[in-house]
Each structure stands twice: as C-alpha cells, then as structure tokens.
Amino acid sequence: MTEDQKLEQRLFALASSRRLAILRYLKKNHSATVSAIARELKIRVPSASQHLNLLYEAGIVTFIKRGMFVSYRLLMKQEEPVKGVMRML
Q1: What is the pTM of this model?
Q2: Helical (H) or strand (E) element with 66
Q3: 78 phi/psi in degrees, rounded to 5
C-alpha cells in the first residue's frame, strides 16, 4: 500500500460523525471498552466494534485484549492531516 493509499484510508475512517464521536470519547477518556463506547454513544456493541475495527485498520486506534474485554485507545503517532482532525475534536 502506498503512502497516499494509507492516508486515504485514514481520512476515510475519519469521514464519519459516529467514528469522530468515538475518537472524541477516546481522546477524553484515554481508553475505553467497546461496551462503554457503545453505551456512551447509544449504539449497539456490534456497530461500535465495526467502527473501532475500521479505525484500527486505518492505524488510528490500538487495542489491548484482557480476557473477554477489549479496550481501545488512540495511537499518538499520526500524519499531520490526521493530527489536524484530532486537534479539532
């Protein structure tokens, strides 16, 4: 995947109000489980999980699995266009 394709993937992941709300929540809380994110945004856990997976594949979030729980957090190393969006949250 070229650098332009990677950036396009990241910007596509950011082009959703629901995913931006997830990122805003993670920025505020530093990390959260899928169920906590779903509860906060009033969406179903599978929907939250799909959004988080897209953000993970784009390299914007990472996760730690502990038993049955998966906790997500923001990845701090981002390209400038992504950093610009994150600063607006």
Answers
A1: 0.85
A2: strand 61-66
A3: -140, 155
Q: CA 35, CA 83: separation in Å to the nearest integer?
A: 26
**Of 32-36, 47-51, 74-78, which range is least confident?**
74-78
Tokens found for residue 82: 């992504």
For β-strands 32-33 and 69-74, DSSP reports them as antiparallel
Reading the block at residue 41, the tokens are 């945004």
CA distance 45 to 39: 8
Domains in the chain (CATH in brackets) are 3-88 (1.10.10.10)
> Which uninterrupted H or E stretch holds 69?
strand 69-74
Maximum separation of any 2 CA atoms in the chain, in Å: 36
What does the DSSP assignment read for 2-41? -HHHHHHHHHHHHS-HHHHHHHHHHHHHS-EEHHHHHHHH
